[in-house]
Design goal:
Rossmann fold, 2 domains, three-stranded antiparallel beta sheet, 11% strand
Amino acid sequence: MLRILTGIQKRRTHRVVAPLYIAIEGVIGVGKTTLARLLQPEFEARLMLEVFEENPFLASFYADRERYAFQTQIFFLLSRYRQQVKIRGFAGRIPLLSDYLFAKDHLFARLNLAGDELATYETLYHTLAEHTAAPDLVIYLRASVDTLMARIAARDRPYERGMPREYIANLARAYDEFFASYTGTPLLVVDTDDLNVVTNAQDLAALRARVRAALGQGTYQQSLPLANLPPPLAGRPAPGFRLPIGSRLSELQAFHRTLDADPASDLFVHSLRLQERIGSLARELALAWMAAPRESAGGEVRSTPN
């Protein structure tokens, strides 16, 4: 069954200029449905929520995955396709927010099925996938296994109690590998370990801005954490001042080579770690620039107070 929740119509200064279809993805417990509900008023969208509780094999699958994997997967595939038929009818006419991507069904199947069962599933999947609508944006929510296990425990769904950590770890790895090479639609990757969109209004506002930027409806620039430093003095840096960039770039290049040399390196995590180092370098250079002694118009050198 498809659960459709109609959004409350409100007047806003920022409105969706065209009907868009956004799908949110991530591992079990990462917060897909929660985020869909929180974004719904912003985009005045209809929610297309997966009703996975209706799968009669789900509880049995978590108790004995090998025995019930095929039945569980086929039920999900047909149920999700039935929802996709309705999504395809709405797409392009009204804004839509979904808490899953149809292609994720294939990801789960490859993790849980093998042999003839997987071959049978894939034949059916590829036949159905040709008739689904592609989202305008996919939001991939990431989290560490520790965070995922904590969130699963906190929501305390009966059939998820005793969820093996190894299964969640394998699923998280499969998701990272899937989205590392995903090119089907525009993709926004969000690390949620230190994000709390439920209780932190600033986190939610920042994420909304990122989504709008990804949709081409606004701009997003992550602010540098410079609040503890006073604004730079007026004037240009004093003669002889140089940004400490040479050695730091060498360190960054060495770090990159180290990652490349690791035969077990995960390309997705590799990219994220490299971006983290680049961000750290940018912050250090910004701090150095703001703290640099300044030369006034009269030639006087002034330093930023401590």
